[in-house]
Amino acid sequence: MPFDPTTRPLSLNEARVLATLMEKARTVPDSYPMSLNGLLTGCNQKTSREPVLQLSEVEAQEALDALKPLNLVFQSSGGRTTRWEHNFQRGVGVPEQSAVLLGLLMLRGPQTAGELRLNAERWYRFADISSVEAFLDELQERSPEKGGPLVVQLPRAPGAREQRWAHRLCGPVDLSQGPAAAAPSGTVPSGLQARVEALEAEVAQLRAVVQRLCHELGLEADMSPPGQE
Predict the structure, then answer these.
(1) Distance of alpha carbon 190 from the chain centroid
(2) What pTM was estimated for this model as a whole?
(3) Taking Cα atoms as reference points, which of 109, 130, 107 lies closest to residue 117?
(4) pLDDT single digits (tens) 160-206
């Protein structure tokens, strides 16, 4: 039986932890499966996250413990450090393309089909916007036997050409609320944000290499980000 958000919706913390595992599995495979410390860093990123969260280690562990019996995450065996993997596609019962779209919606909030295609570049390359829309429509028309709709199309924002989509993994979306205000001038340009994300991915890969080398040499390495206990 696939995961059904109508009977057991995810909390915001659970959705963030799950989507971060989904993201890192595709963007920094050398760091995957993930340790709790690495996962926490990914959950609390300041870029590519909406809303920005500041989870504690206890909150992240509680989310993992709650996701495990739902068959959405599992622990990897071997090694001294416990590592975690997601089981989203099998647990929810969706193909890879649908999983990518849901993961992005959980991480970045409501987006248009065009934004989803652009933001999915490092996860999966959709041929065109029409293919994104086709998978969104499929997710919106999902039958009750499969767990019901997993996305919903939001009312069009004033002056916007495209409607945005939101996920339903955390329960029904309140369509009576007006769309979020447009981003103010001074928002980080998409090109700069892409460079920041690329640098974050490179740092994560370097951290994984250092951890592996320390493990082979029998050394303990404190890989906590600066300023984090």
Answers:
(1) 19
(2) 0.77
(3) 130
(4) 889 999 999 999 998 865 444 333 434 444 445 555 666 666 676 67
Q: What pairs with residue 166 in β-bridges? A: 152
What is the token pair recorded at 156?
Answer: 């069009």
* Residue owning tokens 């019962």: 93
What is the topology classification, in CATH, of domain 12-154+162-167? Arc Repressor Mutant, subunit A (1.10.10)
Q: Give 175's DSSP letter.
A: T
In this structure, the number of other CB atoms found within 10 A of the CB of residue 111 comes to: 22
- What percentage of the chain exceeds 90 in pLDDT? 66
Distances (CA, A) of 211 to 36, 149, 180, 207: 14, 41, 41, 6
| Residue extents of the structural domains in the chain | 12-154+162-167
The single-letter DSSP state of residue 87 is: -
84 strand-pairing partners: 34, 75
